[in-house]
Amino acid sequence: MRQFYDTFTTPLGDFSVALNATGAVIATAFGGLPDLRDRFAADEIIRDAVRTAAVRLEIDEYFSGQRRSFTIKLSPSGTPFQQSVWRMLQRIPFGESRSYGELAAGLGNPGAARAIGRANATNPICLIIPCHRVIGGDGSLTGYAFGEDIKRWLLAHENSSLPVHT
């Protein structure tokens, strides 16, 4: 199946996005094509800045402080449980965070915090599906696929009460 991608510069370095043939986002990554390829399977991927222009515009608007939510079509590949977690992540408002336990309770399964953590870690569409907004129950940043410094920067960007570190 043919898919399309582009890599462009953000305040946090290179950012890559991949789209399926219908134009829906299937993966994103901080970094270049090798980082992106680790997040989805593709038989053929073609660089196409025109097809990815709408996504790039929304990402640029996010980083410039003009966008708090994304409107682009998404098509992440995952299990029904992962999909339910990723939908819940999309409901965390800009500037807010949730703990794994809060997400588990929101799904009606308070004992599922670790499973939520695994689903969060496998989110193929970082930033747009805001897995960076999930923190530990004690307020700690916990893990992030692209490093704690990027997670801290994103949270600070969305909430000026946190210091920005890059």
Would you mind describing this structure in some detail?
The protein is α/β, with parallel strands linked by helices and 166 residues long. The protein folds into two domains: 2-63, 2-Layer Sandwich (Double Stranded RNA Binding Domain), CATH 3.30.160.70; 80-158, Arc Repressor Mutant, subunit A (Orthogonal Bundle). The chain is 33% helix and 18% strand. It contains six helices and six strands; from the N terminus they run βββαβααβααβα. The strands form two sheets. Strands 3-2-1-4 form a four-stranded mixed β-sheet. The chain has a two-stranded parallel ribbon with strand order 5-6. The N and C termini lie far apart (37 Å).
Structure class = alpha/beta
Based on Cα principal axes, name the global outline: globular
The CATH architecture designation of the largest domain is: Orthogonal Bundle
Distance between the termini: 37 Å
- Which whole number gives the mean pLDDT? 90
Major β-sheet profile: 4 strands, mixed
Strand order of the largest sheet: 3-2-1-4
Stretches where pLDDT is under 50 for at least 5 consecutive residues are: 161-166
Strand fraction: 15-25%
Order of helices and strands: EEEHEHHEHHEH
Q: Based on DSSP secondary structure assignment, what is the total number of beta strands?
A: 6
Number of helices: 6
